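Why does residue order matter? Because the sequence determines the fold. Keep that principle in mind as you read this record.
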Amino acid sequence: MDNIALSEIKALLDDKVLIYEQPSFISSDPISIPHRFSQKEDIEIAGFLASIIAWGNRKAILKSCNTMMNMLGNEPYNFISSASDAEISQLSKFVYRTFQGEDLPQMVRALRYVYQNGGLEKIFTPIAGETMRTVLIRLYSTLLPHLGQHARKHIANVSKASAGKRLNMFLRWMVRSNERGVDFGLWKNISPSTLMLPLDVHSGNVSRHFGILTRKANDWKAVEEATNILRTFCPSDPVKYDFALFGAGVNGEVEF
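Structure:
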């Protein structure tokens, strides 16, 4: 792409960001689950759990997320902090596609460990200039001892080239400004400039359509390639374009 093409693409995407980054977007998206809560820790935990099952039909995702919150007594932080072993074991009844059996009880126990040791914000915050890839690898390593072979499959391992779509989406929720009423802006110690694109089929296809992405696989190298271009459009907040790329893709709006 030459500079003229890049400037035209940026202008198109900037327009689409304004259209899709709206509170009306929330109700049909998994971000609606943490929006049910006001306490910081509840938002974090509800967001994290919702993000890790956010694949497939969005109506089915939301139904299952609401079931999950109900099973946590609609007080996720309180449940994770104080539930008995028997109460946690009851969570094995939760099933969503391949997320089932002991997966939710193990996730809850893993999150209990995380919050006993500083919480999700601490574990996601880069240390001494770490890249976000390094942060996600550290998260995986921290959770691994608390998760069985099946449950750990639901946490992306970017060291194995995973795009980490759902973890990057969760980070977008927690870090980006809440100025437009969609994301939360809870985590002030992480700069939006460091976030990586939550790359999926929709955002990947639209990115390739515009030449933002040339790599065929939706893997971590593709995330880096697309995010690097988006960072030239908006160095301080490259992932704001997730709204434009995903919205255009999911709505079949490719020919802007």
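The chain has a mean pLDDT of 95.
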